[in-house]
Design a protein that fits this description.
134 residues, three-stranded mixed sheet, two-stranded antiparallel sheet, 42% helix, 19% strand, globular, binds zinc ion
Length: 134
């Protein structure tokens, strides 16, 4: 992740590097405020955390998702995909929704509508949380 930011010619400051490292260690969805709390002892302010999250989001390395009514982020692989988010453990599973999207594009074009952006997100329980009876 750091490497990709550097390739983009972004000055990597020590605080920014700490934020990127903390983000890269996340598994599944995480709350930005929890990240702020986590990094505060290291002297990293809220503004730096949010600015870095924005940079990562702009470059497609992070995606903003909704979780239990609040904003969260998840680390992303490259390529267009969507997410299944577990409400119990915050696990995030990527899914390729291209078939569905093609169908929707088709419906939209029949209505002469040009789709510019879309959101598609699913929340529920992952396999292990179902087994635990969450
Ligand atoms: Zn993703
Ligand atoms: Zn999509
Ligand atoms: Zn789960």
């Amino acid at each position: 992740m750091l490497q990709r930011l550097n390739e983009d010619g972004l000055r990597s400051t020590a605080p920014r590097e700490s934020v990127v490292k903390a983000v890269a260690a996340k598994r599944g969805a995480f709350n930005p405020e929890a990240l702020v709390d986590e990094l505060r002892p290291g002297g990293i302010g809220r503004a730096t955390v949010y600015r870095t999250l924005e940079l990562l989001e702009e470059r497609g390395m992070l995606t903003r998702i909704h979780q239990a009514g609040c904003h969260a982020f998840t680390v992303c692989d490259e390529g267009h995909h969507h997410h299944l988010v577990c409400n119990a453990c915050s696990k995030v599973l990527p899914i390729d929704a291209r078939n569905i999207e093609d169908e929707i594009q088709e419906l939209a074009s029949r209505l002469k509508f040009r789709v510019d952006t879309h959101m598609l997100e699913f929340a529920g329980l992952c396999e292990s949380c179902q087994a635990r009876g969450a």
